[in-house]
Design brief:
The structure is a homodimer.
Chain A: E1 7-13, H1 19-29, E2 36-42, H2 48-63, E3 69-72, H3 77-83, E4 89-92, H4 95-105, H5 122-137, E5 152-157, H6 162-173, E6 177-182, H7 194-197, E7 203-207, H8 210-220, H9 229-246, E8 250-252, H10 258-268
Parallel strand pairs in A: 1-2, 1-3, 3-4, 5-6, 5-7, 7-8
Chain lengths: ~270, ~270
């Protein structure tokens, strides 16, 4: 019997939303898959009082034997100093790099408190809202209204992952993304469905494994022909024949996250802003 | 007349999706708001050949006087070595911290190539798909079907930002989020709309400035009563009276990004997973 791995408490502390701290902190922790981490994200720590509350919480974890690790992206010096009192391994995700950048840009950073994930540009906000609304309107072939201005049209059989990928592209990159279902009525010999055929250059296909598709469809309609392995196998095979015949790029969603698929779609269709 | 600021080419290079490199790199660059950066994200650089292509591109930028900066999150040693040849200020976003973590965890990182934004857990993928589909189904009060299992119900007058915030919470945190419109028919004296009143403890309100709302509504219906400043002022005032009267928390979306609002909603409703 192997020794049980100790659990470590991990804190992502930020003066803003905590997203950067969480993202980079987790990216670093993912390199240690055998260990157990108890994660806590504490955003909006922009005062010494707030920092002291955090330190108290960390001290409790330390007393409980959880050997805390503290990832920070706080910029205010007094807040950072207050956090230094925490009984934890402190990993400041910004400071070293910020100094490197200051040297290379021959200027000093502004004193703004980590405003990256804050509103900044109203124009960006509008574009994002517009992209999300466009995605909802043009989800699952429900509307062709503004299909001509789509940046990407994702096609695939039902439940291959069109919708989450669409929403991610809209939110993260503010692209106008429509998605369109391939059904049993679509014969690969006829090419892409008529509504999207003229936009083939913007199409991107998804496929997956028959087993995964069957599992996902089973959640929605258990014990149906729709979710049967035979039907899934058939629809996926026809979809892949279609993609190859029409030359549209495609990906297997069973082995990729929404983030990965989006990155590939951007690169393939040369859509990076 | 001030000296024009030089433009700097910035590269975010990763062996995976590039999201972490982009996010942290941009968070660092946001501290230098007066400078102009030409950004390039290059994901999936996981071979020496790929790294050399990147180096060539950077050399071109250098020759054009763009004084490149290179942010990396690549883990493979041979890829990192190949990138070291680039004529750029190199800022490795992971390496220093990875060593700190290795020391603190008394173990070495696995050799997996930066797999954080990759598929990992199929269960997470299902939860995310389910959350996005739930959000679309329960957008704008269109369906009450599964409102009882909502983690959050965002309420606000039309165009205050309910939908992008909903989608972000679904994608990023896999929460089940519904949203419900407040209309001119809703009298604050009657409390929350009947469909959501029983779920008041999960409600979160949004407001904005009358000018911002008028601008956003104008895009959809120009020169209408709906987009008039008077109507917007009225609806927002009634919404805020309602929030205060029912005690539901609320935020002004005109000063916050979707990320920020989501972080506040999570904290306020104690929804962090």
């Amino acid at each position: 019997m192997s020794t049980p791995q100790p659990r470590r408490a991990v804190y992502f502390v930020s003066d803003s939303t905590g997203i950067t701290a969480e993202t980079l902190g987790n990216a670093l922790l993912s390199n240690f898959p055998g260990l157990t981490f108890l994660r806590h994200t504490i955003p909006f720590v922009d005062s010494v009082g707030g920092a002291r509350d955090v330190v108290r919480g960390i001290a409790d974890a330390h007393a409980a034997g959880l050997d805390p690790i503290l990832f920070t992206t706080t910029k205010d010096a007094s807040v950072s100093d207050a956090l230094a009192a925490a009984p934890a391994t402190r990993i400041d995700l910004l400071q070293g790099h910020l100094t490197e950048l200051e040297n290379c840009l021959a200027t000093t950073a502004t004193e703004q408190l980590g405003r990256f994930h804050t509103v900044g540009d109203p124009e960006q906000y509008f574009r994002r809202m517009r992209a999300v609304e466009y995605a909802i309107e043009h989800d699952d072939g429900q509307s062709m209204r503004a299909l001509d201005i789509a940046d990407v049209i994702i096609v695939a059989p039902s439940r291959c992952g069109k919708t989450p990928t669409t929403m991610y592209l809209a939110l993260q990159y503010r692209l106008l993304v429509a998605n369109y279902p391939l059904t049993d009525d679509d014969d690969p010999g006829d090419g892409l469905p008529r509504d999207v055929a003229r936009y083939a250059s913007r199409c991107f296909g998804l496929t997956t494994t028959p087993l995964r598709l069957s599992q996902v469809r089973h959640e929605r309609r258990p014990s149906s022909r729709y979710s049967s392995l035979a039907q899934c196998t058939r629809e996926l095979r026809r979809a892949e024949i279609l993609y190859r015949a029409t030359g549209i790029p495609y990906l297997n969603s069973s082995t990729k996250s929404v983030e990965e698929m989006s990155a590939v779609i951007l690169q393939t269709l040369k859509l990076r802003p």
